[in-house]
Specification:
By secondary structure, the chain is α/β, with parallel strands linked by helices. The protein has 9 helices and 13 strands.
């Protein structure tokens, strides 16, 4: 059984820790701050089994060097083959069968360009670690990729089994929900989820993991093809919306300036 734990870092990052029953130790995903990981593992009295990196931004990679120094340079660090990330010693590209060191799990690497050109996601058992590609009620900014690339990447993720848990790496949910409600005001499930998320954050509880099913229901970036979102875009930008890529691009433009 796979257990995932969000470790808060910086202002709004999560470093995810993965543990498997009866295996002593943990993998971590996108450790921007090594001290957060070391403190967690020290408290749990566990070793670091390995590291998974989704993309090259420093708030996701900044702890690699210290972790390798602390736990040993032979610690496996997986990361995108298409991005030159210091400390990554297990570069990977898309594969249905990723063999992780020190642990036996069903693992897949999915290439999801958009936020960065080499961004990858990891589907491990029934948990998706998607970095800054998919957020709850949102998606990452297009720093390097095109709207076409990001739409294709999000479509890939939306086709994963509905029950899959979604572990993204930022607590952006309330801000994303404010935008989602402005774009999709008649979405009843979105309103219900907004109330739940507000209650969780008021209690200082993470809104994550989400799920693929939930995101397909409430996330405007997974719904940019729908009549409801297109009508909102047509009103906002005063033009007919008949193309999926155009719809997504205008939605991302709206969010960038929201």
């Amino acid at each position: 059984m796979l257990t995932v734990t969000p470790l808060p870092a910086f202002d709004d990052n999560y470093i995810w820790a993965l543990q498997v029953a009866h295996i002593h130790g943990a993998y971590v995903v996108d450790p921007g701050d090594a001290n957060v990981v070391i403190d967690f593992l020290d408290q749990a009295q566990m070793p670091l089994l390995g590291v998974l990196i989704t993309h090259h931004h420093h708030d996701h990679t900044g702890g690699i060097a210290q972790l390798l120094s602390h736990y040993g340079s032979n610690t496996p660090v997986y990361g995108p083959l298409k991005e030159n990330i210091a400390g990554v010693n297990q570069p990977v590209s898309a594969t249905k069968n990723l063999q992780l060191h020190n642990i036996e799990l069903n693992a897949e690497v999915i290439e999801v360009p958009g936020h960065t050109l080499g961004h990858i996601a990891y589907l491990i058992e029934d948990v998706l670690f998607c970095g800054d590609t998919l957020f709850s009620a949102g998606c990452g900014r297009l720093f390097e990729g095109s709207p076409e690339q990001m739409l294709a990447s999000l479509t890939q993720l939306s086709n994963i089994v509905d029950s899959t848990k979604v572990c993204c790496t930022h607590e952006y949910t309330l801000a994303n929900l404010a935008f989602a409600n402005a774009v999709d005001p008649s979405n009843k499930q979105l309103r219900q989820y907004t109330e739940q998320a507000q209650q969780l954050r008021a209690a200082n509880t993470p809104t994550l993991p989400s799920s693929i099913a939930l995101e397909k229901a409430i996330n405007p970036f997974l719904r940019s093809h729908t009549e409801e979102i297109r009508n909102s875009l047509a009103d906002k930008f005063q033009q007919p919306i008949i193309d999926n890529v155009k719809s997504f691009a205008l939605l991302r433009q709206w969010k960038d300036n929201f």
